[in-house]
Amino acid sequence: MDTTSDQPLPVVDASKGALFVLFLVTVIDMIGFGIVIPFLTYLVEDLTPASQEASIGIWVGVLMTSYSAAQFLFSPFWGSLSDKIGRRPVLLVGLVGNTVFFTMFGLANTLWLALAARFLAGVFNGNLAVARAYIGDVSNPQQLATRMGLIGAAFGLGFTFGPFIGGELSDPASRWAFFEGTIFDSHPYLLPCAVASLLSVLSLLVALRSLPESLPPERRTSVDKKSKEGGMLKTMQNTGKMLRSGSTSVVIWVTMLFIFGFTIMHAVFILYTQMIPEDGGLSFSEADNGRVFALIGISGILTQGLLIGPLTRKFGTRRLIPMAIVITGIGLVLIPYSQYESRWLHVLIVGVLVSVGNGLFTPSSSSFLTRIAKSEGYELGVVMGAQESVSAFSRIIGPLTGGFVWVLTYSRDWPFDYHTAFHICGILMAFAALLSLKLPLLPEDEPVSESALESE
Asked: Domain spanning 13-439: which superfamily?
């Protein structure tokens, strides 16, 4: 444990420019995750030999999970490294990696090259935990929820625009004559990847100019000491320790259950909405589903950008966490219970429930974890790395579980039919909400009275 964590944080220039850079890093991270969703199946089809067409589904699954798998493996490493050398250089390295490997993916002409590019992009996008640790370095308890909300808003914005960019800019030569006969004709999925790389370059330039270091030398872990203790092995041991005891472990397990349930929905939502009404579906087109994700993204952005601060002051972070989980769980369970005639109203309601719940949970859990980690004497980068690693693991098993359950149940009779996967989402949310009740109530979590709010 780091005894210096009990001392007051030094004054660091947490300027608007620095916070904007962290916002951009998170947006780029989620754009990288979501940009392949619209065209991944078509890319795999183009690169799969005719004799191996039966393996297309397997390759789609492998490419989808490789990004999150890389984040799962390397988030603890980046978090620990940032505790040694500072947050700024780690964030800069991540942006350089984004630039290289997004473009590499768009240029891939074999499945193995595409897999390598996707995995390496995930490796260098494992620095989201470092962005959260940076926020923890420069924020007091009253600022944490709002500033984590900024990161959460960036998370939603990136996931909204990632699929949009991927879909709108795929195969440009077939839509715009300007691209005919160019490299974008022979590599139809390069353009969205190139746009993502360009955004990463712009973020890198802004970071070089406007991102100060948040972790002064006296607060850093000795590189020599850590290297003697085993490097990556020690990091994994610390992660295991945090998962076994203390309030830190409760927050991380709650986060894992929440993301597990949430990402099951990612795998089965479009499978449900594209079903014909006679089978219980909504007959949504790709454009319809795109509008739904835009709605969810915008609602989440508004929640994390505008609501999280006032609601935290009113209820306290500890009370807000189970409330957010319950709201999300209700929305997920209700998704497949739509009537075709009122489908848009139903999707609007459940979409707002899911996005508001998720928008409240993400910054609340991160800010609460930051405060618990400091009170228990853990290094902040290691803790955030452990949380992001567990979150990435949930993003791996969530879609795989959803797809597996869907294949087994969607054509059967109720209750084990296409509703089942969404019911599992609700069950996982219920476990997460119950577990979150074990979290301690910290002094800063006492709700602020109306009179106090009026006097501010």
From this structure: MFS general substrate transporter like domains (1.20.1250.20)
